[in-house]
Amino acid sequence: MRVTATRRTRTAAVTAALLLPLLGAAPPSGAETSAGGLQRAFASAAAEYQVPQSVLLAVSYLQSRWDAHAGAPSVTGGYGPMHLTDARTALAEAPHHSEGTEDARGDSARAALLPRQEVPAPTALPARLTTLPEAAALTGISAERLRTDPAANITGGAALLAAAQRDLGAPLSADPADWYGAVARFPASEDDAAGAAYANDVYDVIRGGEERTTDEGQLVSLAAQPGVHPTARTTSSGDTECPRSLACEWIPAPYEEFGDDDYGNHDLGDRPASQSIKYIVIHDTEGAWAGVLNLVQDPTYVSWQYTLRSTDGHVAQHVKAEDVAWHAGNWYVNAKSIGLEHEGFLANPDAWYTEAMYRSSARLVTYLAKKYGIPLDRQHILGHDTVPGPTTSTIGGMHTDPGPYWDWRHYFQLLGRPLEATGGKKSGVVTIRPDYASNRPEYTGCVTKGEPCAAHGSSEVRLYSGPGEEYPLIKDIGLGTTPTTGVNDLSSRVSTGQQYAVAGRDGDWTAIWYLGQKAWFENPRSAPAAVNARGRVITPKAGAESVPVYGRAYPEASAYPAGVPVQSVSPLPYKLLAGQRYVVGDEVPGEYYYAVTFTADSHRVVVGQDRYYEIQFGHRVAFVRAADVDVLGR
Question: What are the φ and ψ backbone dihedral angles of 127, each rounded to 5 degrees?
């Protein structure tokens, strides 16, 4: 999303509220800070409350991957390694589809849809957002200490698990398999299916084991216990389009007619029979769960297929995959994609996403990708921030979520497609792949325009016009503005998993072709920001000085039948110049879905003879006509 003045004001107020308990706080007395201290804290809390240590470690891993986030709250007001929630600190915002100038539908055949709605204030907080006060009551530890002291936070989590076990009338057994019911209750989900899906993931962690160094530099280990098999409950997706291992509910987006022959908030379709589904688009909500669900049920608003909840990874489906939701800001992409909204905030680096939500999302995407034949790569699993503006006039209004703090490297590991080197030293292609935790480029504007954001790990790497930080940042001529380090300024950034053709190397710096320019990023051997890869690239045909670049792959005029207005094939302001190379994602026919009436009998899918290549052109993908370019490599 783009940050307007109003948005910045609200963000500042919200972020200040989120950080209020932390201002001026020194490290709490008695906190475990020595090497191995966090591991000992798990052992101590497990012994005190008679919870198997493996259960406590696995629950914490699913909540936070054992990170403390320096006492900052998550998206839903969760604190510390156990993600104990205190939603009084988590204030709702307007969702990102209500901000900026992007038309979420992105179809120039219809008037722009620019809703400006606010999230209604919740009337009551659900139990899943108030586990920290409950832990305080059980342990006698103050809420402030539970928020800021990782060891105390772990103790609070152990107390909650033990209380849930007692409430079930079950013994405080040393066998982790006996704790399934208590684990299912830990996130205080609103329904049994969500709790069961959460518990199933926890026991997957126990069986597989984990080890990692936390954000505070502490090594924590959970030894694999492959023989732990509790009597698990299977979850049911009912009428939803979800794998059975996920807890999904059907909360439909309405297809209703209103006003002056207008309707919303999606279009009926017949995918994949009428047109293929090529993309899955990853969004963040910029709002809390309840408010976002209210908005997707408004017929005058926009829509997306799925929303994922942060506390436990629960999923709600709103639009069937066969139908076209309005979410990406580009009608070509909307017509060929499925949109997933994740409860979260782009510009709050420590408003972290839980492992539970990452895992649910990855499981859902894996299921959808297999069902519809979608490749698991960054040119098909798109961030909203990588969807191109369909025309020149729309470039400045396109959204920028999920932003630089979404952990794409970890996400692709969960998808079963880890981002690995596939090319040799002389490879002409690289895959962007910094170490998320240690890669900390400066961003500004998270709270106040121009002011630095909190230092934080990032999936993105900054680009310069020469091999050094003394050179200017790369400029995006489509935006027409001077590039900045603003958290929403994509002018000079590449993202983990994206692939680019190498344009040069100079010591610790690597150049790639980007938006028609040579763009340089620091890539030292000791801490590489990219790995060598293999892949096909395109380049202008011999004799061509340049070829046009497009934000959508629309058919030629002769392909349109009577009654369907011809959509212009209008190039973007960029040029792909002779000698430059860009990585190919797919070859597709020109295609346009005509849907401007409530009744679907007039809807048409127009397919042309012209073919296009999707390419990784800048931070966003783009399209070039196949007739204009040659394809090189495999």
Answer: -60, -30
Domain boundary pick from 170, 188, 222: 222
CB–CB of 269/324 below 8 Å?
yes
Contacts of 404 (CB under 8 A, 6+ apart): 441, 443, 458, 459, 460, 487, 493, 495
pTM to 2 decimals? 0.91
- Encoded amino acid at 582, one letter: Y
Residue 186 structure tokens: 């830990």
Q: Which of 222, 253, 283 is a domain's end point?
A: 222
Can you read off the two tokens belonging to residue 43?
């052992």
Distance CA 550, CA 506 (A): 32
Distance CA 60, CA 82 (A): 5
> Considering the domain boundaries, does residue 403 fall inside one?
no
> Distance from CA of residue 494 to its chain's centroid?
15
Give the range of the structural domain holding residue 590, as residue numbers without chain letter. 539-632
DSSP character at residue 500: E
67 lies in some domain:
yes
63 three-state secondary structure: helix
- Block mean pLDDT (10 aa), the chain, length 634: 33 32 31 66 98 98 95 90 84 55 83 62 77 97 96 98 97 97 94 92 97 94 97 77 94 90 91 97 91 90 95 96 97 98 87 91 98 98 98 95 96 98 94 97 93 94 98 97 96 98 97 98 97 96 97 98 95 97 96 95 96 98 98 85
Q: What is the dihedral of CA 233, 239, 244, 250, to 10 degrees?
A: -80
Tokens of 259: 């006003």
Per DSSP, 486 falls in state B
Predicted confidence at residue 119, as pLDDT, reads: 47
Q: Which DSSP string corresponds to 161-182? A: HHHHHHHTT----S-GGGGHHH
Residue 529 C-beta-side C-alpha neighbours within 13 Å: 24
Look at residues 148, 131, 136 and name the one whose alpha carbon lies nearest to residue 30.
Answer: 148
Domain total of the chain: 2
Query: Cα torsion for 513, 515, 517, 523, to the nearest 10°?
Result: -50
| pLDDT at 320 (0 to 100) | 98
DSSP 127: G
Question: How many beta carbons lie within 10 A of that of residue 286, not counting itself?
Answer: 29
pLDDT given for residue 112 in this prediction: 79
Single out the residue of 617, 404, 373 nearest to residue 516, CA to CA.
Answer: 617
